[in-house]
Amino acid sequence: MVHPRIARARLDSLLKQFPIVTLLGLRQVGKSTFAHWALPGFDAFDLENPATLLRLETDGQLILEQSKKIIIDEAQRLPALFPLLRSHVDRHPNHKIVLLGSASPKLVKKISESLAGRTGFLELGGISILEADQEQLWVKGAFPRLHWSRPRASAEDWLPAFLRTYLEQDIPQLGFRVSSLKMMRLLSMLAHSQGSISDLSQLGGSLGIDYHSVSHILDIFEGTFLVRRLAPYFANLGKRLVKSPKLYIRDTGMLHHLLGISFKKKALLFHPKVGSSFETFCIEQIINLARLEDPAAEAFFFRTQTGVEIDLLLKFRGELIPIEIKLSLAAQSIQSLERGMEYLGLKRGFIVHINEGFTEVRRGIWAGSLAGVASHIFRGAK
To answer: Taking CA atoms, which of 28, 43, 261, 279 is between 20 and 30 Å from 51?
Structure first.
């Protein structure tokens, strides 16, 4: 059974605007299944199949001419195809091509360089809280194989296997020659400092490599959608601001695997990293929902050297929205958000907590569940 995805509306919108749409996302996040479900009339070519890869290498122009609607999966495996696509859609502007890839345009430069102005980009995240049970998504992560497959994959078995394949096969296939052992050690270190301000020199010292090597590996992790660098927000406030990004393992299931947490809610709630895990889950869900409705949406955090901090600053439809993320609602959280809003001159803000409900706790400050806050922000409530 194929489960509908809320990203379809965004995909349909892009196909009306561009001859090519590039659908990006972490491996195994459901890109192929989503594309085949959303685009039933398209001919599909999977470049992970050596025979298909060879066909497109040798007869690419002929194949493109034979179909007006094409899906090309794992498109980053054949960069030489992109100039061919450019000339093809210039000659046939009514043809539609959807490229699926597991690496961002920063890593696959030829997508951006060859198809500039001809392709729209859509990042497919993991399963949304609008598509499945929130608690299970938080505890096990948002990979479809862990929730929708038949038979359903076990998180205890599937996540380690995925990570091994990612490090030992997927990264080398992108052309990067980095020790899988060093990458695994770095991921483990990131998990144990989840959501912390990045200190690349310290990370490099622990790994026995330099600052630039750490930065290079993080570029790979970020470009393949495994890690998020959450940038700090800069404002001319006459205050000293933290200027280094925060680092997050994006999928909470992967985070829990790296931390050795059992995939049970009770075990998670008693773990010291439960707060960081909940923060990660909410940040990913909010950012993914925001970018489906506003492709220009941006995400930051805010922190001054004196300790005034906001977990997530979301720039959505021109408005800067401050969001604090805490397991439980406390007066300290409200006061912290008030201080941040005062610094930034903001009139409304939100606190996400683990409990149900949604209420205004102070003038201009609402607190509630992730679903409640998301509904309020993304459904136009003011």
So the answer is: 28
What is the CA 138 to chain-centroid distance, rounded?
15
> Per-residue pLDDT tens for 276-330?
999 999 999 999 999 999 999 999 999 988 888 999 999 999 999 999 999 988 8
pLDDT band at 112 (very low <50, low <70, confident <90, very high): confident
In 134-224, alpha helices (H): 134-140, 155-165, 171-173, 180-192, 200-207, 211-223
Quick one: tokens of 246?
A: 């925060």
b (16+ CB within 10 A) / e for 275-289:
ebbbbbbbbbbbbbb
The DSSP bridge pattern shows strands 246-249 and 227-232 to be antiparallel
List, for residues 357-369, the tens digit of each pLDDT value.
899 999 999 999 9
pTM of model > 0.85: yes
119-123 sheet: strands from edge to edge: 43-46, 69-73, 96-101, 20-24, 119-123
Number of domains the chain is built from = 2
Structural domain ending residue among the three candidates 98, 123, 148: 123
Q: What is the rounded (10 degree) CA torsion for 128, 133, 137, 140?
A: -150
The residue segments making up the domain with residue 28 are: 8-123
Contact 231, 243 (CB under 8 A): no
